[in-house]
Amino acid sequence: MRTIAVLNQKGGVGKTTTVVNLAAALAMQGLKVVVIDLDPQSHLTIHLGVNAELDGNGTYNVLTKSADLSQALINVRGNLWLLGANIDLVGAESELVSVVGRETILREAVESMVESFDYLIIDCPPSLGLLTLNALAAVKEVLIPVQPHFLALQGFGKLLQTVSLVGRRINPELKITAILLCIFDGRVTLSAEVKADIEKFLESARATQSPWSEARIIPVHVRRNIKLAEAPSYGKTIFEYEPKCNGAIDYRHVADYVHNHMGAGSRDDEFLASIAEEIDELDSTLESVEEVIEAAHAAQTTAVEELVEVSASAEVAPTRLGPIGRSKRRIVSVVTPSARRLPARRPFAVTLRK
Question: In terms of residue numbers, what domain contains 156?
């Protein structure tokens, strides 16, 4: 079983979105996947359509009450299981203060199901506390989602120090294997600059013994896509909500890379060659769409020019805007295609009270 912690102490960089959709894509390939929500905000639990208040105490019970992890799992999709979280997890750190070996509780719980699943993916909280230490002690790989902004890199060094410390004292097998650029916009110069800075840093560590000496930037970047932001409110993965959008395409390729190409002996050019045909097809589709848009703009410009010419040549007689005049005015209605019907949005997980 491959064990992966998705970690970044900065919030809003795409951790939960990556865990949900990476796990879903792997499960769609027939692999048995377990995801663990270690964030008291329970975003992973809610994203998968589970009521956090009723069924989100699994992680809390495993950490504080020695509950059997396999019995606490919830089967949320085909080949996909969840260990949910809720706000009770906030108190776990204080309850475990006096417990000996509190950093390895999750690792001991996970060891009982190593032979039963293909992947374990942990959604870490946006902090470097006890919950995150439990995640790092329980896995062998760390995947870091990064938003290509200047401020997103400020805590990057501290994060690496934490991983290095855990590797020396608790989990010698821990390695940072991949960096995933999320909310990526290739049209912005800053995105390319941040990517270049990370690549330069990783290359400088190749000959060292650091946990990130073999880390790579995943060659597929998750593009900025509103559908990825909409999907959680319906309790759906991106493949259920909008399977043909850019977000679904990107995470499908990320899952392919993680499962088949992420390793010391693999090369990124081989992976890019494997998806080249699909990329070419997408490029040709985009070109045809751009041609249609340009033709529509040209037709619109021509229509506007003709309308201006007709208006300029017409003689407009002054009229008295009395009740009769208003009643005889023509009302032109513009008929537009009906909007795409969306499924009902999920209600708030917590009832709002005065």
Answer: 2-266
